[in-house]
Specification:
By secondary structure, the chain is an alpha/beta fold. An 8-stranded mixed beta barrel has the order 1-2-4-5-6-7-8-9, surrounded by 5 helices. Strand 8, helix 11 and strand 9 form a beta-alpha-beta unit. It starts with 20 loop residues before the first helix and ends in a 26-residue tail after the last strand. Bound molecules: ligand C2E and magnesium ion (MG) (2 copies). One magnesium ion binds next to strand 6. This is EAL domain-containing protein.
Length: about 290
């Protein structure tokens, strides 16, 4: 199952390492070339409903991959910030939207496709117009597209962010709150902004099984989501134990290596789980399933 090896495990950079100015400059140049030379790819990771006995695919998330001819696979956690700092996030983001919508429109199954949006790109002001154009060009139904936004995107100018978000929602496109629980978070945000989904960050999901405080907060978030009518998706699920725990807590959606690694899927088949059987695998070791 070589193709199931996680592409991110062969990343040559550590997101924690701050790149030097010269390195960033070089990377920005290389990224510009990458856009022109077709070195970028989108991988897709399935998003599941967690209901019993077997979960079903609810959609998938597009994750950007860059294979540099010399450096190998570079993580988006490294090159997206570089693109943001060098005025490249506009063209990069546009490429992602066009690719993701064209891919999704070609799938046999009408799955939803979720696309990550950089805060810089979100605040640009041109986004609603671009999205409208891309949907027309690709023929993708707007309700099949969901943007993944972080709180960082809206925190600096909430009024303007809300305007942009409303324009996007008027097009029929969904908006998810990504990285939730990874840092700053306010109830105000959830109340004011019409999010369609909350994505609980992996770091937070990992803590739920280990300390009571995290579990208590998790329950509060689920209750909040339920009363606001916003589904909560738990990210980074790697084991059946984690999945069972989330199910017991009535968390309805999940994503993670347990169901499938990000994979290329521009063919007509659309997103597939690598191990759908996992959903009713009971107490078996996840390693035997992956
Ligand atoms: P994210 O949107 O929170 O994406 C989830 C990340 O967790 C992805 O990393 C995914 O490969 C990884 N992941 C998924 N399941 C598991 C799991 O079970 N275990 C572990 N350890 N990891 C898991 P990736 O692809 O490296 O992306 C990192 C971040 O880069 C994303 O976080 C997103 O914020 C950003 N990003 C990715 N693609 C794009 C893009 O097209 N545009 C923009 N602006 N940002 C992107
Ligand atoms: Mg995301
Ligand atoms: Mg996320």
């Amino acid at each position: 199952h070589a193709k199931h090896t996680s592409p991110e495990s062969i990343c040559f950079y550590d997101a924690e390492i701050a790149l030097e100015v010269r390195e960033r400059r070089q990377m920005a140049d290389a990224l510009k070339t990458a856009l022109e030379e077709n070195e970028l790819e989108l991988y897709y990771q399935v998003q599941m409903t967690l209901e019993k006995p077997s979960g079903t695919i609810n959609g998938c998330e597009a994750l950007l991959r860059w294979t540099h001819p010399r450096l190998g696979v570079v993580s988006p956690a490294v090159f997206v910030p570089v693109a943001e700092q060098n005025g490249l996030i506009g063209p990069l983001g546009e490429w992602v939207f066009r690719r993701a919508c064209a891919d999704a429109a070609a799938w046999d199954t009408p799955h939803r496709v979720a696309v990550n949006v950089s805060p810089v790109q979100f605040m640009d002001g041109n986004l609603p117009r671009l999205l409208h154009e891309v949907l027309l060009d690709t023929g993708l139904a707007p309700e099949r597209l969901e943007l993944e936004l972080t709180e960082a995107a809206i925190i600096h100018n909430p009024t303007r962010s809300l305007q942009i978000m409303r324009q996007i929602k008027l097009l029929g496109i969904g908006v998810a709150l990504d990285h939730f629980g990874s840092g700053f978070f306010s109830l105000e945000t959830l109340q004011t902004f019409p999010f369609d989904r909350i994505k609980l960050d992996k770091a937070f999901v990992d803590r739920i099984g280990h300390d009571r405080q995290s579990k208590a907060i998790f329950r509060a978030v689920l209750t909040l989501g339920e009363s606001l009518g916003i589904p909560v998706l738990a990210e980074g699920i790697e084991t059946t134990d984690q999945m069972e725990l989330l199910r017991r807590e009535n968390c309805t959606e999940g994503q993670g290596y347990l169901f499938g690694h990000p994979l290329p899927c521009s063919d007509a088949e659309g997103p597939q789980t690598q191990n759908l059987k996992v959903a009713h695998a009971g107490g078996r070791e996840p390693s035997s399933l992956l």
